[in-house]
Specification:
mainly alpha, two-stranded antiparallel sheet, 2 strands, about 0% strand, globular, binds fe (iii) ion
Length: about 290
């Protein structure tokens, strides 16, 4: 990281997820064939302060109890009914216009992801996942803090894997000294299956519940676990998974590079693409979806 360009610090406060995704690509999981720009553990890099603070908050507050509260608060899906396109527009109101360096708005990230999937000739529901995978970030528009919307996700109710980014901040999480929650299995039984495991609260789990009646199973896995890096990139938490999870894992892994590395110098043209996506959305989803 170039210390002479502090203005390039990720502005996480305004743009949920984008600065975090940039951090992941730049410093944790660089594109194959490229080198990480800087080790994220380089504590002297001031540009990383916002991301580090984000992790500090996330790891401190995402407890078993917190997740249960958030699920009760949001999973009734009684907040808003809207079409997928209204949700995209709604999400796009989050664009950070204070930082011209962050050139991608939310819709562009979604479109670039879906278009890259489409270019590779994948099934249409896979393309649709690309378009919708971050719509759960509308949680931010309900006033939820960043650390409860974006970032990588992990199981709660059992010991935190040391492979989770900034693992040391879990020292501030009360669950890590609670004997009910700080063993490898915690409240779970071995091989119980991820569907029986509570994940830290964020846009993935929320959108899974919004979409669960409409999409094929691999699509739902991609949505639900796309930020569960400790599992799909690090191979952790295998002791909680069952055969079905293991069958679905390759789909989650197939999706991840599109999410991280599909940034294109030629932004897709939404007006041109809209008819294709209107048809695609109509094939799988009702006109209005409960969020
Ligand atoms: Fe995401
Ligand atoms: Fe994304």
């Amino acid at each position: 990281m170039d210390p002479s360009s502090p203005a390039k610090a990720p502005s996480l406060a305004h743009d949920p997820g984008h600065a975090w995704e940039e951090f992941v690509v730049a410093s944790v999981y660089p594109e194959p064939g490229t080198k990480a720009k800087a080790d994220y553990r380089n504590y002297d890099a001031p540009a990383r302060d916002t991301v580090r603070e984000f992790y500090r908050e996330n790891h401190r507050h995402q407890t078993y109890d917190f997740v249960q509260r958030k699920r009760r608060e949001f999973l009734a899906l009684e907040r808003k009914r809207m079409s997928v396109f209204e949700a995209c527009d709604f999400l796009n109101t989050l664009v950070d216009d204070s930082d011209p360096d962050i050139e991608l708005d939310q819709l562009q990230h979604l479109l670039q992801t879906s278009e890259a999937i489409r270019r590779d000739g994948h099934e249409d529901w896979f393309v649709l996942v690309g378009l919708m995978h971050d719509l759960g970030k509308v949680l931010c528009l309900y006033g939820e803090p960043q650390w409860a919307v974006v970032g990588d996700t992990f199981p709660v109710g059992c010991r935190h894997s040391e492979r989770i980014v900034y693992h040391e901040f879990f020292a501030d999480n009360p669950d890590s000294v609670d004997p009910r929650y700080n063993t490898p299995l915690g409240v779970y039984t071995e091989g119980c299956g991820l569907r029986n495991v509570l994940m830290s609260w964020g846009h993935d789990e929320y959108l899974f519940h919004v979409m669960k009646n409409y999409l094929p199973e691999p699509a739902l896995y991609m949505i639900r676990y796309h930020s569960f890096y400790a599992w799909h990139r690090e191979g952790e938490y295998a002791w909680l998974t069952d055969e079905h999870d293991r069958q679905m894992l390759p789909w989650v892994q197939k999706f991840n590079p599109y999410d991280l590395y599909s940034k294109s110098p030629h932004p897709p043209n939404w007006t041109e693409l809209k008819p294709y996506y209107e048809n695609l959305v109509a094939k799988y989803l009702p006109a209005n979806v409960a969020f």
